[in-house]
Amino acid sequence: EVQLVQSGAEMKKPGESLRISCKASGYSFSDHWISWVRQLPGKGLEWMGRIDPSDSYSHNSPSFQGHVSISVDKSITTAFLQWSSLKASDTGMYFCALGTYDSGRLGFWGQGTQVTVS
Amino acid sequence: DIQMTQSPSSLSASVGDRVTITCRASQTIRTSLNWYQQKPGKPPKLLMYAASSLESGVPSRFSGSGSGTDFTLTINSLQPDDFATYYCQHNYITPYTFGQGTNLDI
Fold this sequence. Notes:
The structure holds two protein chains of two kinds.
Chain A: E1 3-6, E2 10-12, E3 18-25, E4 34-39, E5 45-52, E6 57-60, E7 68-73, E8 78-83, E9 92-99, E10 106-109, E11 113-117
Parallel strand pairs in A: 2-11
Antiparallel strand pairs in A: 1-3, 3-8, 4-5, 4-9, 5-6, 7-8, 9-10, 9-11
Chain B: E1 4-7, E2 10-12, E3 19-25, E4 33-38, E5 45-49, E6 53-54, E7 62-67, E8 70-75, E9 85-90, E10 102-105
């Protein structure tokens, strides 16, 4: 059974750094891209970027370029989303999602990680 | 970036109704269009992919159509479990943008 299990809720101050995680299981980790999706409070879904776990090639949406970084650790089949300097406007829910057939068809999702910056 | 515009933004319907949600892309995306359902406090769930293909396990009352720039999601005979927010998303080229969502309520 495919599972994406995300790390728990975080409460941070502006300017702090943060890394949240997405632990994958139930499939061959290197075979499928993982995307990150943001949902601000009461708002819609925003695709942030994706990573190919086979070679760690990542690609961010221009809207998020330079503000977040996406990485993986194949040894523990885990993807990460990282900020070096958080802003209050980063407060929201963050989902990881698995591209099942191609990188953009998001067939499996993590449960979400709530990030609060205040 | 390709912009995705959904209509309506909100929709009220009753159990048993047939509803249609539309999604328009700012440029052609062929059939690279997915639909998701999201309920409060939950992650999105993939319903349709490639514009008209039903994801495994999704009830057949859901259907999708369209190509190029105009797409529709139709739900036949609404069930209580269908009241949720629906998003379209293209996966033609990155960035994979979503529509703003359609809130379907009773």
